Amino acid sequence: MTTTAPAAAPGREKVTDRDRPPAERVPERVDHSRERVRGLDRVWLLVFLAPFLLLYLGFTIWPLIATIYYSFFDWTGIGPIDDFVGIGNYSSILVDPLFWLSVVNTLVFAVLTTVIKLPISLVAAILLTRKWLRGKRFFRTMFFAPLIIPVAMAGMVFTYLLNPSNGALNAILRDLGLVDQGFDVFANRWSALLVLVLVAVWQIFGQYMIYWMAALQNVPEELYEAAAIDGASEWKKLTRITLPMIKPVAVIITLLGLVNAMHVFGLVVTLTAGGPGTSTYVVSYFIYQNAFGAVPFAYGYASAAALLFSVIAFVLVSAQGLAVRRAQRLRKEYGV
Amino acid sequence: MATITQSGTQPGTQPGRRSHAVRANLIALPILLVIGLVWIYPFLWTISAAFKTQAGMFTSGASLVPDQLNFDNFARAWVNAGFSGYFFNTVLYSVVSTLIELVKAALCGYVLARYDFPGRTLLYRMIVGTLFIPVASIIVPQFVLIENLGLLNTRAGVILAMSGGAGALYVLLFVGFFSSVPADLFEAAKLDGAGFLKTFRLILPLAKPVIAVVVIFQFISSWNEFNIPLVFTLGQPDLQNLAVGMMSFQGEYVTDWTGFAAGMTISFLPMLMIFLFFQNYFTRGLAGATKG
User: Which of A45, A302, B59, B257 has a 20 to 30 Å separation from B75 between CA atoms?
Assistant: First the structure.
């Protein structure tokens, strides 16, 4: 998991700093202003760190270590953890078709939602920050609205709207004469996955719109003014100023989008419950079903699955990060 | 946002530009309106379904006009189905976990940005490294921990789990902000004889944009939280939040859709108010927090 990242030697901070994306580099920038604590201030320092450290150690660091530990045992959550099975859990998971199905579904879901939600939320953000546009507040509220309903609730609403007998989708399809009988989108793996993707995009859209709007606001106004004096068209301003300026933030937004999508859980529970059959299982649902779904609980097995998927996700995400960084460096070298 | 709208009137002084803007609006507004209406159709449907009778729901489920104005659904959702309890729990979980996140992130971020101490770099690196850990992958040990603390099936347990795992991102936001505060300010405070705590109290109000972002983000995410309340209240339905509790409408054979719609209407209206109220603060705060 991601714990491997902090292992770098502290002494090399200056060298590695330059390689990090800007958002991470910011805090290190004003290095010289940091001071050593003396006397009574040491107590205050501890008091300030304590709340975060306690919760962080208890609910992030310890669970990480425990997940690794549990994954080597056959444990139902009751009684002592003493049934050591070595890599038994892992060898069962590697040949568990349901696990791999869940992994594939999760990755398909994550990539599809990211590919859909990022561009359209960027377009919306650009449009809704135009000076000439009327009613900006109204439209922003409209597109932001789905974010305020719990995603699990959104799932419930859509199970109704998409139901084959009297939901909105089929009412429209019937009115258009496209189908004569109810069409059940949840009867087929791919259409069910597509529905998951689209509902997820609909629900989270506002959050990414806000991210993009914040990125757009940080582009200095002077650049546009200078471009306007040079007689640049709106399109030129967009492609030559706006997009290049928000690129560093775009990398982070993409990363957030991918990783957040990999956590999908509530939507799957209410929208498809993994169905039809088990064909839309995602990893978090697989873990939940194994750990809490049915007795006897398989904590060890679930932990191994969690760990394995975290490793897969981490490798993919850092590969993407590396690829972006390399592309940026190449571009800088050739001055493109 | 306010600044944009103000400066928006400026280009209008040139007549050529104004007609250009009018034309752009004439094209953009209808398109936005149509997309927007489709976008919020599920909301409109929910509100109208909340007033429908069961029969009306059955015969014209997709229609936006309720067959009659029926307030029974609201009473049923609020009292019988326990939405009042879910609502109370959701507000409690969201408010308390937001407070915890805010306090711990602000304090830790301040110290990380201001002071050098043994292990500072290691802690900072660890926080960055654990930024993207999914809840689902560490929920089993969290469950075991809460169980061992004797807090399983208590509100305290849910709150602890909700505010324990997240927060790395918020700490980084605060570190970023406090690092950008000019050193002169701290020097001035020191010259005035302000100690550790006093200095913090002087500097903290400057961090308003970051505070706004953390509050809004954490409030929304805990309001929508599903995985943790579901797992940590498996034995106790009366501790559930709205997101988990509303599943009680989903019966084994039939789902009480009108009751569900009424419950949902009750639950999203307050959030909509909050958003409308804080909308300006939201983007401006986020822009301020990510600046630099």
Answer: B59
Task: Collect all residues of chain A within an 8 Å Cβ-Cβ radius of residue B257.
Answer: 160
Please state the rounded mean pLDDT for residues A278-292.
90
State which residues form the domain around A315: 97-334
Whether residue A66 is contained in a domain is answered as: no
pLDDT value of position A129: 86
Burial class (CB in 10 A: 0-12, 13-18, 19+), B80: exposed
- pLDDT of A100: 94
A222: in domain: yes
Show me where the domains of chain B are located.
2-72, 82-249
- The number of domains in chain A is 1
At residue B12, does pLDDT exceed 50? no
Say if A167 is an interface residue toward chain B (CB within 8 Å): yes
Looking at per-residue confidence, does B240 or B256 come out higher?
B240
Averaged pLDDT of chain A: 82
Tell me the three state secondary structure of residue A73.
strand
A148 contacts on B by Cβ (under 8 Å) = 220, 223, 268, 271-272, 275
Task: For residue A54, count other CB atoms closer than 10 A to its CB.
Answer: 12
Cβ proximity of A10 and B121 under 8 Å: yes
B119-134: pLDDT as tens digits? 899 999 888 888 777 7
A336 vs chain B: nearest CA distance in angstroms?
24
What CATH number did the domain enclosing A186 receive?
1.10.3720.10
Judge whether A151 lies within some domain.
yes
Interface test with A, best of B13, B102, B131, B138 (most A CBs within 10 A): B138
CATH class for the domain made up of B82-249:
mainly alpha
Picking from A148, A287, A302, the nearest residue to B268 by CB comes out as A148
How far apart (Å, rounded) are the C-alpha atoms in residues A297 and B128? 33
Confidence band for A111, pLDDT divided at 50, 70 and 90: very high
Question: By C-alpha distance, which of A154, A213, A107, A257 is closest to B261?
Answer: A154
Give the ipTM of the model, two decimals please: 0.80
Please tell me the predicted confidence (pLDDT) of residue B18.
67
With CB atoms and an 8 Å threshold, state whether B131 touches A2: yes
